[in-house]
Amino acid sequence: MTTAARRRGMLISAFSATFIALLDLTIVAVALPAMQTDLHTTITGSQWIVDAFSICLAACMLSGGSLGDRYGRKRWFLIGIAIFLAGSLLCAMASTLTVLIAGRAVQGIAAALLVPGALSIIGQSEPDPARRARLLGYWGVCASAAVLAGPIVGGFLVDGLGWPAIFLVNLPIGAAAILLGTRTISESADPEHASLDPAGQVLAIVTLAVLTYAIIETRTNGWGSPITITSLALAAASGVAFAAVEWRQDKPMLPVRLFADMRFATVTAASVLLGFGANGAFTLLSLYFQQAQGRTALATGLLLVPMTITIMPASALAGRLTAKHGPRLPMLAGYAATGAGLLGLAAAGDGHSFLLTGALFVLTGAGQGLAIAPAVAAVLELVPRQRSGIASATVNTARQAGSALGIAVLGTILAQRLADTDGRTFRALYGTGMRDVMLVAGAAVLAGALLLTLKATRRPRSRRPGDANQDHLRPTH
To answer: Is residue 245 within 8 Å of 370, Cβ to Cβ?
Structure first.
């Protein structure tokens, strides 16, 4: 095999694995009503179907790349694809909600290996910075295409073949990625620069999972029940233990000392709020279009296209604006547009035209495109190059964690509205619940914009000399 052929095979393998991993973030949204019907579950079950993936992806993302760096990037990338395919097959064969949730968790863990693994393999394959930047740009296009294709492909598959097909479609793509990757990817590792943090990893999963459980299950348990109070207390204790473990690590999974810089802390907190509002609302909109308005899965996927397709050109614009003006301007514009779009959907009500809905979806999608990439650029300005990977991963993880919490909180708001029995029709109750969801989602994103507006610019407090290994920050000029 020629060098050029090996290079093409490596890229196709990395892009294909990325595509199926990120496709499953959005493709499942249009299938949720069919899953609810077949598995005899409710909105609570739908929340767990989405959050099982999101929690594992968010909690494992920071350490997913470390396994490859330490024990072999090719090895763990291919292992990640195999695990993802096993999870997909488990999901497709699921006859109960419990099995489906377990399969989604397996998929999320595997995706946490695939996404950083693909980026690392691409980065290692090209020593020239300019050519490497172009390859990473192509990777970004592939990632955006996966998000865009999810609702449309999902709609076709659910209406034509049933919801298990959205998981079976991963199998041939993933198998081809393994075959190509085995032949074309060169093995590499840097064990001296990578460390594992098993205690931190376990505590991260426990914290996020227990907190999500406490929120989602309030529909059954109630906010004042011993189960809810105990769960919240356990999540808080686990979170404190996680911070303490990470504080003592020389090479932590989460660089907690970077949060001493208010600029880093603010961008990360804003990323949580963006994921909370935008991604949480996206999932529930799919349920609303099908369950309240009676649309098919394909029609729902097409309705969501204006939101997803606008992200790509907005991301390109964000790159140009960041290069010219810095990351703060496009971030503020993006958060403001996303929040305004979500609030507009709340104000529009149930009887509005699709023209208005489409315009608000375009505004929301454009806002997300403007906000996401500059957030990474913002934190990269604050850390030295050797800390760039962990800093950017922290921001992406924060957004995924926000998504998991958003689906939990916003889904609970909707479920509580639907539980009301005041004589109104189901559609009216659904419409009221979605109005509340959009109000909370929009307010959360605008709170992120406010944080970015008011973020501190002072120097971080001085730290002990020994802290330099963990979180050395560039000084404010």
So the answer is: no
